[in-house]
Specification:
Pfam families: Peroxidase_2. Belongs to the chloroperoxidase family. GO terms for molecular function: metal ion binding; peroxidase activity. This protein is mostly helical and about 140 residues long. It has a single domain, classed as Chloroperoxidase-like (Chloroperoxidase), CATH 1.10.489.10. Helix content is about 50%, strand content about 5%. It has five helices and two strands; from the N terminus they run ααβααβα. It has a two-stranded antiparallel sheet. Helix 2 crosses helix 3 and helix 3 runs antiparallel to helix 4. The radius of gyration is 16 Å and the shape is globular.
Length: about 140
């Protein structure tokens, strides 16, 4: 699937640099990163994450709460980012991003996940990413 990230026609390979391009894995309206227009779009951003999780109003999150946080991020991003881009392929990836906490940590049959697990993952794992990227 990642071969499509290579801009060369009929490519048979990809590199990590291809995956690092804007709107491949990283995209505008992320739940935990700022838009590329505003700066470093590859590093966890606590302010953006706090904006997203403001829509997580219960101890057990459901698909609606996760979707609401995503829609709110899209609205905010579109309102303030003059270069806002959200293509159909980005939307497809983004749907997976919203479902990932339920798939990874939750109960798929009820489409729920413990909020604490999701917050722990974002706050501990992605903050570690910031520490590691600053130490290189």
């Amino acid at each position: 699937m990642a071969i499509v990230a290579n801009p060369e026609p009929n490519a048979t390979f990809f590199t990590l640099d291809h995956l690092n391009a804007h709107n491949v894995l990283e995209h505008d309206a992320s739940l935990s990163r700022t838009d590329a227009f505003f700066g470093s779009n590859h590093i966890f951003n606590q302010t953006i994450f706090d904006e997203s999780r403001a829509y997580w109003t219960k101890d057990v999150l459901d698909a609606d709460q996760l979707a609401n946080s995503k829609i709110a991020r899209q609205i905010n991003s579109k309102a303030f980012n003059p270069n806002y881009t959200f293509t159909a392929s980005v939307e497809n990836f983004s749907l997976g991003e919203v479902a990932a906490p339920i798939i990874a940590f939750g109960d798929i049959s009820s489409s729920t996940v413990n909020r604490t697990l999701v917050e722990y993952f974002f706050c501990k794992f992605w903050k570690l990413e910031v520490v590691l990227s600053n130490s290189v």
